[in-house]
Task: structure prediction
Amino acid sequence: MTISGTLIPPKPNVNITIEYQLEGQNDWTLIIIKSTDNDGNFNYTWTPPKAGSYTIRGSWSGDQNTNPSKSEVKIEVEAPPTGQEPLYIVGAAAAITTVALGVYLWIRKRK
Result:
């Protein structure tokens, strides 16, 4: 599956922390820390370690002009039949988009 998103306003070369939490667990597990491209985009191809219900989170720590931001999406991963790839059933979206909260907080901080 591909995890992707965009920071708005665009922030090039900033680190996005991507983590997952398996349902029933309290701890978050780091998937990767990815840098954004010149347009504030990031993406990463990830294979969940096993079937189950996951929450995937993308977060950014903010800077002197923009507050921190995070976004979460829930997915269901079903065990594949023998010899096939896992099936990903996404609750509300196919990818993480760390956008809306970042825009809101950026606008709010500017006032």
Helices lie at 100-110. Residues 89-101, 103-107 have pLDDT under 50 and may be disordered. The chain has one domain: 2-110.
